[in-house]
């Protein structure tokens, strides 16, 4: 699987996705041309993107190149008005998979992901339905997206105990703007051998450099409309981060977006970073992040400006258990092992 992947939320633009992108088949084909020519072999979509429109456009744009890519899609959100048109029940997952196969014009999905948590459906039912899809040949591997740490660990435990398909990946949000996933999701993935697929690496455009402190939101930008993800809780921290990104970008003669993506590619536990774009030119610039090597000083500056504080029990692990930490533990705690005197305390 390629370290950089193509995301297709920009395909279509209907049903609330217009702020993200409005690419038609020709525009999608240009993005696929650029991605495949640059070695990308993972393409990610979801049935909910533009109410199936993204999958339809992707299926048509791929054409005879289907076998050149790993095709990933997702199901969970409402695709109709009925009570069984959403969720992770057997009924909905099987129906959703079959509908995705038709829209994508393929006979199998390489990675079928549950798009979010469903606290009303037993995981045994969800994983049993995924097992049936794998055994039928309609799905090759299964993954999840947007699960909490305890939720994915519960799912993996049930899968192991009942010999059902294990999630091989989790698709999550992680960027220099919001690093909460590093508390539980990254360490659990490293510990359990689950690949991490990172979406929205540029925080919906916040990390491109076009958003400035005390300046109006750029016309036509995603956050100029009704799009609310990712939420912005600390604007000052964001703009401090963007300031550093812009300085490093100037020093390397590249775009701030490339720096932000290159930082992610160097993080522990990450299998692939999913890039969404509105044009082939934007995608080509983002893909070039794979060629950018940031130095230790660059990483130190980005770490200092964006690092989240250690929550409990992690600060206690740092203070009292640092001599016996695993690779998974260190993915979060390593940068904090030499805290300032104001952080350091005696173990309770």
What would your notes on this structure say?
This protein is α/β, with parallel strands linked by helices and 348 residues long. The protein contains twelve helices and eight strands. It has helices spanning 25-37, 53-62, 90-104, 123-136, 149-162, 181-192, 235-252, 256-265, 280-287, 296-306, 314-321, 327-333; strands at 4-7, 42-44, 70-75, 109-114, 139-145, 167-173, 195-199, 270-275. Strand 2 (42-44), helix 2 and strand 3 (70-75) form a beta-alpha-beta unit. The N and C termini lie far apart (45 Å).
Outline of the structure:
This protein has helices at residues 25-37, 53-62, 90-104, 123-136, 149-162, 181-192, 235-252, 256-265, 280-287, 296-306, 314-321, 327-333, and strands at residues 4-7, 42-44, 70-75, 109-114, 139-145, 167-173, 195-199, 270-275.
Order of helices and strands: EHEHEHEHEHEHEHHEHHHH
- Structural class call reads alpha/beta
The tally of beta strands, per DSSP, is 8
Give me the CATH superfamily of the largest domain.
NADP-dependent oxidoreductase domain
Q: Which of globular, elongated, flat, extended, rod-shaped describes the shape? A: globular
**Domain module count:** 2
């Amino acid at each position: 699987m390629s370290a950089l992947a193509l995301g297709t939320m920009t395909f279509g633009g209907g049903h609330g996705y217009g702020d993200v992108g409005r690419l038609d088949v020709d525009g999608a084909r240009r993005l696929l041309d650029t991605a495949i020519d640059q070695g990308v072999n993972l393409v990610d979509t979801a049935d909910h993107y533009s109410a199936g429109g993204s999958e339809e456009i992707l299926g048509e744009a791929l054409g005879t190149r289907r076998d050149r890519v790993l095709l990933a899609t997702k199901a969970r959100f409402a695709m109709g008005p009925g009570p069984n048109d959403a969720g992770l029940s057997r009924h909905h997952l099987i129906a959703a998979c079959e509908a995705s196969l038709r829209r994508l014009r393929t006979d199998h999905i390489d990675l079928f992901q549950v798009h979010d948590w469903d606290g009303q459906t037993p995981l045994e039912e969800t994983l049993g339905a995924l097992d049936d899809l794998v055994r039928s040949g309609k799905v090759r591997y299964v993954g999840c997206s947007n699960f909490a740490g305890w939720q994915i660990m519960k799912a993996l435990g049930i899968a192991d105990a009942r010999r059902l398909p294990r999630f091989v990946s989790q698709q999550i949000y992680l960027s220099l703007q919001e690093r909460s996933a590093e508390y539980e999701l990254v360490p659990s993935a490293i510990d359990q051998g689950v690949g991490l697929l990172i979406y929205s690496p540029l925080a919906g455009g916040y990390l491109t450099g076009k958003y400035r402190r005390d300046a109006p939101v750029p016309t036509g930008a995603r956050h100029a409309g009704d799009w609310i993800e990712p939420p912005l809780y600390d604007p000052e921290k964001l703009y401090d981060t963007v300031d550093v990104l812009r300085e490093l970008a100037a020093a390397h003669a590249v775009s701030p977006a490339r720096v932000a993506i290159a930082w992610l590619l160097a993080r522990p536990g990450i299998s692939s970073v999913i890039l969404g774009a509105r044009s082939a030119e934007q995608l080509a610039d983002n893909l070039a992040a794979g060629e950018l090597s940031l130095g230790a000083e660059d990483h130190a500056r980005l770490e200092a400006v964006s690092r989240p504080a250690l929550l409990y029990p992690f600060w206690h692990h740092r203070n009292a258990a640092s001599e016996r930490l695993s690779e998974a533990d260190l993915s979060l705690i390593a940068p904090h092992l030499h805290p300032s005197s104001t952080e350091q305390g005696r173990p309770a």
